[in-house]
Design a protein that fits this description.
Helix content: 55-70%
Strand content: 5-15%
Structural class: alpha/beta
Order of helices and strands: HHEHHEHHEHHEHEHHHH
Strand order of the largest sheet: 2-1-3-4-5
Number of strands: 5
CATH class: Alpha Beta
CATH architecture: 3-Layer(aba) Sandwich
Number of domains: 1
Shape: globular
Number of helices: 13
CATH topology: Rossmann fold
Largest sheet: 5 strands, parallel
């Protein structure tokens, strides 16, 4: 009888250890991807004496879940004279960015601003007219409060099947981005177009199937087990996206190259 009790205690202890380990790795992944602040937040970086480049947007800009294209820009010697400010917040829509544009962008007195926002508008079904109005208001506030050059970026594909229903809807939002850039005098950076060229070459592109568990799984694999974002994308049969929304390192390179070229042309 005593042996049985001891055996049960060992089983319980083993189960507790396994559960604790699982919770630990989940916590590491969840905190690192969803709660941890990126490098160079407005609160940290806006007081720098170097000219500020503010990257405004949502999680793709924040870069804690998926490839960090702003970090890539910081590592480029030709851009060493800039202070890169990461004004990306997970889950933000265009309305959310508009609500904080004065504190997170205008207050930094930037010389340049990139805007990449709208994926969550598409996901949330924000009416296209409202999205257009928000973009125009964002640009208007920046132009009224600064002398910054502004670049609007088109939205990356959602899933890598360009013919899927959500990517057909996405095309309307990207058209609004390009038209808003033209009407406001902002520059336009063709992120979607460059990425579409790459994923169009795949024989069996993956359709959009984003979920929070999938995103958390990607975060755990990267932060707890050290797998690269590219490896995580590869296992899922994807090229540029780790979870149908957020970037692999290859995806981040596409945006970094476009942003770096734009900034270099300003000099």
């Amino acid at each position: 009888m005593r042996k049985r009790i001891v055996s049960r205690k060992r089983v319980i202890a083993s189960v507790c250890v396994v559960l604790a380990a699982a919770l630990g790795v989940t916590g590491v992944g969840g905190y690192s991807a969803f709660l941890r602040s990126p490098d160079g937040t407005p609160a940290e970086a806006c007081g720098s004496p170097r000219p500020a480049v503010v990257a405004a947007g949502a999680s793709i800009t924040r870069g804690t879940l998926g490839g960090d294209w702003i970090g890539s820009l910081r590592s480029r010697s030709e851009l060493a004279g800039y202070e890169f400010v990461n004004a990306g917040i997970n889950g933000n829509t265009s309305a959310d960015l508009l609500a904080r544009i004065d504190t997170d962008v205008v207050a930094c007195r930037p010389v340049a601003v990139t805007i990449l926002v709208g994926t969550n508008d598409v996901r949330d079904g924000i009416p296209l007219a409202q999205y257009r109005a928000n973009l125009a208001a964002i640009i208007g506030r920046i132009q009224d409060g600064t002398d910054a050059r502004i670049a609007l970026m088109s939205l990356p594909p959602m899933g890598e099947d360009l013919n899927s229903e959500i990517n057909r809807r996405l095309s309307d939002y990207n058209r609004a981005i390009e038209e808003t850039a033209a009407s406001t005098g902002a520059d336009y950076l063709p992120v979607h177009e460059r990425m579409a060229e790459i994923v169009a070459e795949r024989e069996n592109p993956t359709s959009y199937d984003f979920s929070f568990p999938l995103a958390l799984s990607a975060a755990i694999q990267h932060y707890a087990f050290g797998r690269s974002w590219d490896d995580i994308a590869d296992v899922g049969g994807r090229e540029l996206l780790v979870d149908h929304i957020h970037l692999s390192d290859r995806g981040a390179v596409v945006i970094a190259e476009l942003a770096a070229g734009w900034l270099s042309a300003m000099a």
